Amino acid sequence: MTGAGMDFSILQYHFMQNAILAGLFGGITCSVVGVFVVTMHLSFIGVCIAHAAFAGALLGLWLGFNPLIGALLFSLGSAAIIGPVADRGELNPDTSIGIIFSLMLGLAFLFMGLMPGARTEALNLFWGSILTVTQQDIIFLAAITGAIVGLVVIFYKEIQAVICHREVALAVGIPATVIFYGLLFSTGVTITASLQSIGGLLIYCLILNPAAAAYQLTYSLKRMLLIAVAFGVISCWAGLAASYLLDIPSGAAIVITSAIIFGLATAFSPKRKVKGWQQIPLTG
Amino acid sequence: MDNIVIKIQDAVVSYREDVALQGVSLEVGKGEFIGIIGPNGAGKTTLLTVINGLGKLVHGQAWVLGSRLNRRSSINLRKRIGYVAQVENIDPRLPINVRETVMVGCYGRLGLFRRPTRAQWKTVDEVLEMVGMAHLSQRPIGHLSGGEYQRAAIARALVQQPEIFLLDEPTASIDRKAQREILSLIQLIHKEYHTTTLFVTHDLRTLPPICQRLILMKDGKIWQQGSPESMLSEEVLSQLYGAPVSVPAEIAPVQT
Q: What are the beta bridge partners of residue A278?
C-alpha cells in the first residue's frame, strides 16, 4: 500500500477530528488507569466498575437526567463498595465482586427494559460511537485525561509504592488506603468519561489490553505507562481507521486492535523467559 | 520513664470473633533487642501490628515513641518504625526494581508532593552496599531469591532511619544459609545503630543470640518473659509449645 493511494479527505470532517481527539484522550486515560488495575491484579474489579458505570448511565437515560452523572455515581459507588470487599470481605472477594458485577448487569438490563420508546441512545452506550462524540464530550474527556495524568505525575512515588507493595506502603507511613481508593475512583471516572465513545461493554478491554500488553514488555513502571499509553492511542486510531475502511463498528474495531496488540506483545515478550519465583524450601 | 519507647497497657485486639490479643501489657526500653517467641496463633504478629498502629485496639492503650497511638498519630509513627515481614510471594513481572523498592522506605518521611533527592538515592545505594545487595540494585524485585528479598526488605527499613525495628519472622521460608546471613545482618545493624528491636519468630533456631529479653506468648497473652538464660530451658519451652522441646544448639549457650 502506498501513501499516494490513500484518501485522507475524511480527516477534514469535524466528526472525524472529534473521533481522533476522543481516541487520543480515551486511549491515554484508559491505558493509564489500566496500568494500575493490571499491576494490582484487580482486573475483575475494573470489569465490575465498568458495568456499574453502564448501569448508571442507563438509569440516567431512563429517568431523564444526564447519563454521565448516573455513570459517575454508579462507578464511584461500586468502587466504594468493592474496595473494602477486595480488602477484607466477609466473603471471598471473587464471590462478592461477582455478585456486584451480576447485579450491575441485571440493573443495566432492567433500566433498559423499563425505558420507553426507541433505545438507540441506550444501545449506543453499549457499543459506543466514537464517530458521534460531541465537542462537549471531547472537552470532558480532555479534562479528565489532564486530571488523571496530572495526579499520576504529582503522586507518582506513592502510586508506585501502593500498586507494587501496598502492605509495605502502609507500613512506612504512606496514606496507602487513600491512594488505593483514589486509584479505584480514577478508574470509575475514566470509564464514565469514555463511556460515550467506547461503550459500556467495550471500555474495559481498552483499559485492560494496552496495559496488559505493556506489562509484558518492561520492568520499569514509567516505561510501562508510556508504552501502555502508546498502545492505547494506537488501538483507538487504528481501530478508527479500520472502522472507516471496513465499515465495521468503531468500538469493536478498537477493542479487537488492542487485543491484537496484546497478543503480539505476549508473543514477543522478553518476560516469557522469566524464571519463576524461587522459593527455597527449609532444610535441616 | 524517658527511656521507655513502647508502653502497652491491657491491649485487646480482635479479628471478628477471634481474640488475637487478650490484655497484653508491655514496656520496652530504648535500644533493647527483644525476642518474641511462641506457637503459631499466639498473637506475636498482632503485638507488632499494635506497635505500628495497624492493629486496632478494642480495649487498652498504647504509647509509642512518646505519642499515644490513635488513627491520626499512627500514620506519622509508622514513618519512624521499620517493619520487615516474612518473605512474600510476589509477582516476578512486577515493574519495580530493588533500588526503587528500597527507596519506598523513604517515602513516608518524605511526605506527599516531594520527590526523592540525589542525597536520598545515595543513601539507598550505601544501604544496599551495606546489606550486600549493591550488585542486584537494578534487578526486578520479583527476580530475587528469598534471602535476597529479605536483604532488600531490611535495606528498605534501614533507609527509613527507624527508631524502632519490628522484624516479623524475617527468616521464615528461606534456606539455612540465608537465615544465618540475615541473622548476622540484623545483629550487625543493632550493634551499629542500637535501634530498639522486636524480633518475632516461631522457630527457636532463628532466635538471634543478641536478644536481651525474651517474651513468650501463648493464646494471645504474654505467658512469661525474662532473660534468655531464664527462659530458654526445656521445661519452659515444652510448656510454651505444649510438646517436648529441646533448646536448639544454635542458641544455647546464649550470649548477651
A: none
Q: Tell me the percentage of chain B whose pLDDT exceeds 70.
A: 97
Does residue A4 surpass a pLDDT of 50?
no
Q: Please list the residues that pair with B29 across neighbouring strands.
A: B4
Give how far B82 is from chain A: nearest CA, Å: 7
Query: So what's the ipTM on this one?
Result: 0.89
Task: Supply the pLDDT for residue A3.
Answer: 45
Whole-angstrom Cα distance, residue A11 to residue A19?
10
Task: Choose the closest CB to A173 out of B87, B97, B108.
Answer: B108
Contact, A161 vs A45, CB < 8 A? no
Least confident piece of the model among A65-69, A81-85, B198-202: A81-85
CB contact under 8 A, B108 and A221: no
Is residue B45 within 8 A of residue B168, CB to CB? The reply is yes
Measured between alpha carbons, how far is B199 from B166 in angstroms, rounded to an integer? 6
CA distances from A39 to A279, B90, B92, B224 (A): 22, 11, 11, 44
* Residue B95 CB neighbours (<10 A): 26
Contact B96/A160, CB-based, under 8 Å?
yes
- What is the per-residue pLDDT for A7? 67
Going by C-alpha positions, the residue among A136, A112, A138, A143 that lies closest to residue A125 is A112
Question: Do residues A231 and A261 lie in contact, with contact meaning Cβ atoms separated by under 8 Å?
Answer: yes
pLDDT at B23: 92
Which positions in chain A touch B175 (Cβ < 8 Å)? 280-283
